[in-house]
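Q: Here's a chain of 391 amino acids. Please give me its 3D structure as tokens.
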Amino acid sequence: MARGAPSPADLRVIHELAARGVMVTASQLESWRRAGLLPRHRRRGLGRGRGSVVDAVDPVVVESAAALARHLRQGRDRRLAMLEWFAEAGMGVRPGAVQVPEPPIGAVRQALVWVLERSVSQRLVELARSVAGAGEEGQDTLYAAAGRVLGSYRGAAHPALVRAALEAGKDVPVEVEGPDFRSMVHLVAAVGLGAEEVGADALAEALAAFGMFGLTVEDWAQMLGAAERGEGPPVDWGLLQQQADLVGPVQSAGDEELVRARTVMIGLRGFYGLYVLHGLLMPDTPAQAALRQRIDDLGVLPLLDHIIAVNPSPRQFAEFLALCLEPLYDNLYETLMEQLVEDPAIFRFPGDETGVVGFGKAWLRAVRELPGPGRAVDGGDGPGGRSAKKS
């Protein structure tokens, strides 16, 4: 074989991918190998002094090259492509599809750290810690920077309110939108200045903005005030310091822990997506209602709304995955999975033999019959009609 010419094994990879409409070159394959992103072909020895040969192209090499070709584009940083590949490898396999192999976990960790070190969240934490002891001027700088970031974010309207408005042919009113998250600046300040410096009242306002557990500002203020006076359980503000650092946990996490965090994140994204789709007229079933009830009982919908995106960018994926290393999210995932195992008929109406097909038709019908302002709702009495859609 001529110097620099592609190996027969690489030619087979190139031809197989070309048959799928995926174009790669021999120089790309070699470049990916040098970067540690693509495994080498497995070779079989021919005996002493006779060298070795590639009997067959390893499917892992082919699918890894296909994944890199999908996610790498001209001028794009490879680390973002690695995160997309890692996310894709964690998704379920469709019938007839090929399982996407896992990317090199070391490259995934490097990509996570690279993204997190440059994230707005991490920069805010570093700014908060840098102004400790800098007096009022430093505090003003921190509050201004955090306010600019947090002031643009508002939680989504509750899906039940969205659904009610759609079924009534009305717009979702502004007043049912989520809370103003600008008060979260107090939690950022507590990371750098200390909880005592920020004060219980301000922290109560910040915690209430999450909307978790159905607790109001007054509820949080009462609990934090009691802890401050020694009349209630103490608050471990060290946990806030730990959770504020997204980079450290990723650097210290084992390979299996990173894969587990991905499982937790994708699973929570699915549960959150089901709740959101309920607001978009997805027909209701007892299994769905039970899942929503479990989420409501735990009071964690606002938390999911804060940390989950249905279609995250690679940078969002990195931040969400880092959060899902925490036991809180792992336990929440396990709890919701237990509920799903208990009643898995998410997309089936009781007694309806049409199954998923009938469910899909009912959803389309609900959307087509969506009333406009002033027009009555006609949900019908069959599966997916008004009576079936009630929670």
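Q: Can you summarize the key feature?
A: DSSP finds 21 helices and two strands in the chain.
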